[in-house]
Amino acid sequence: MGWFGSKDWNIIGIIFERPDLYRVNGNRGKGSNAVTIRDNVKKHPRTIFWAVFDQKGGFIEGGPAAGGDMIAHQLLQRLIREVHTNQTVRQVLAVLEKGDTDKAAKAMEWAGYPQKEVRREDLG
Questions:
Q1: Strands across the sheet with 21-30, in order?
Q2: ∠ Cα 18 63 77 (to 5°)
Q3: Number of folded domains in the chain?
Q4: 2 — pLDDT class (breaks 50, 70, 90)
Q5: How far lies 67's CA from each of 9, 15, 41, in Å?
Q6: Residue 2 lies in a domain
Q7: Is 3 within the bounds of a domain?
Q8: Partners of 18 in the β-ladder
């Protein structure tokens, strides 16, 4: 492909670790490798949401993934609305955009995690 048709994507996967912790995994891919990475991220069993960004941080495409049913529908909808502006996602994208590495991951900081339930026994 020519200069203007070549893919140079940053692919983000929001991975379920536990109910109060998701991980932001990022990969930079070029050409057909970018498509392969995107497809693998979408199919990973713990990927809640996937997204593709260009090298300027612009959102190209994304959506719920194979692990999207691991969290409540309301949480997933909130994540979809907020993922492109999430601070952790932006930090991972910044690392990938520099080009020093083609992989980056970080625990996701997010105000949308479900509140931990407090049981009567735990109150003393």
A1: 59-64, 47-53, 8-18, 21-30, 103-107
A2: 65
A3: 1
A4: very low
A5: 22, 8, 10
A6: no
A7: no
A8: 21
- What is the chain's mean pLDDT, rounded? 91
Euclidean distance between CA atoms 75 and 78, whole angstroms:
5
User: How crowded is residue 120: how many other Cβ atoms within 10 Å of its Cβ?
Assistant: 6
Residue 116 lies in a domain: no
Q: 54-111 pLDDT, tens per residue?
A: 999 999 999 999 999 999 999 999 999 999 999 999 999 999 999 999 999 999 999 9
Pairing type for strands 21-30 and 59-64 reads unpaired
Name the band, by pLDDT with cuts 50, 70 and 90, for residue 6. confident
What is the torsion angle, in degrees rounded to the nearest 10, for the CA atoms of residue 104, residue 90, residue 28 and residue 108? 40
Q: Is 7 helix (H, G, I), strand (E, B) or coil?
A: coil
Question: Within a domain: residue 57?
Answer: yes
Domain residue limits at 83: 8-110
What's the pTM? 0.87
